[in-house]
Amino acid sequence: MGHFGDVAGQIYERGVAGERPELPMTAEGLEAAARAVLPAEAFAYVAGGASTERTMAANREAFARWRIVPRMLRGVTERDLSTTLLGAPMAAPILTAPIGALGQVHPDADLGVTRAAAEIGLASVLSTLSSRTLEEVAAAAPDSGRWFQLYWPRDPELAESLVRRAETAGYRAVVVTVDTWSLGWRPRDLQLANLPFLRGEGIANYLSDPVFRSRLDAPPEESVQAMHRAVRHWAAVFGNPGLSWPDLSVLREWTRLPIMIKGICHPDDARAAVDHGADGVVVSNHGGRQVDGARAALDCLPDVVRAVGERVAVLLDSGIRCGADVLIALALGAQAVLLGRPWVYGLGLAGQRGVEHVLRGILGDLDLTLALAGYARHSEVGAHSLVRERVG
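Above: the chain sequence. Below: its structure as C-alpha cells.
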C-alpha cells in the first residue's frame, strides 16, 4: 500500500541520478521564488495582509505555541489519511482555500488548482471572485469534490442566481464568507494602487451571470466603455454589510447543498450559525487580510469546537504551512483544514503542476509527521497529542 510520504523516497531516488526538485520544498521557499517571478501587483495581492500584518504573524505564531509529543512503537506500517466530510470522501483532510483573481498569477488560474486537487483526491473551494466561470471550472474537473464560496452581494437576486448556478454545475457545498463584506486596509495593494477586480480580473462569475447582466445597459464585451460600467456595477453590489443571521434561512430556500459559514472566530457566532441552519463553520480570519490585530485563527479553534463541534463540521483556515500545522489543527478539533497561499505560489511558478507539487508536498509531510508521532490515522490525534509551550 502506498503512502503520501513515499514522495520523499522518490525524490531521494531521483537524486541518485543527479535530479533535484525544480520547485522549492518549503512554504518560505515558494514565497521567495514567487516574489522573484510574479508581477509586483500579483505578488502583493497574494502575500499581503491587513495594515501592519500583525494578524498574519499571529496566525503563524499560534502554531509555534503548540508542541507535538511523539509516541513510539505503535504500529504505523499501514496508514490512511482519507476522510469523509459533508458526506463526501476525500483523500486527506485538506482542501484548497478559495482565492480570487488567480488569472493575474498564472493562465491556468482556477482550472489549474481545481484539476490539481482533483488529481490527488482533494476537495477545492472556488471563490466567487474566480477568473474563470464556475461552469468552466466544473467542466474542467467534472468528477472532483468542488465547493463554491459565496460573497453575498447586495443584490439578492444575484446572490440567488450564483448559488443556483453552483448547485446546477455540481458543486457539493456552499461556503458563505461573512468576514469580507468590504476589503480590509491592505497597504501592499494600496501602495501599488492595485485592485484586480477593477480591471475586470476575477469577476468572471458576475460578468457571465444573467441577473448581473440584466442590470447593465449593454453587454460588457460590447466595448471598453461597457466593461467599465459593468466593473462599476460590480463594485456597487459586491459586499453586503446589512446581512444578518436570519438571512441564512433565505439561503436554505435557494439550495439543498450543505452550507458552511467561513470567517467565524467567536463561539457565539458559531452557535448562531448552527442555530440558523449551517451545516458547519470555518474558523478563519481570512489569512490576516481583514482585521489587523485580530486573534489567531488557531487560538479561536478550541472555543468554537467546544461550542458546536459535536453538532456540525468545524474546519480551520488561516496559517497552515506544513504537515505539523495540519496535525496540530486536527488535534485541536478541526475535521479538516484549508490551505491557501503556498499553493498559489506554486501556481504562479508552474501552473497546475506547481499546485500539485505543493499539495503532494504537504500531504507527504503530514503523512510522515503523523506516522513519526505514532499515529496511523489522523482520527487518532487529539488534545493528548500536544502540549502547549510555556511562555516566560
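The longest strand covers residues 259-264.
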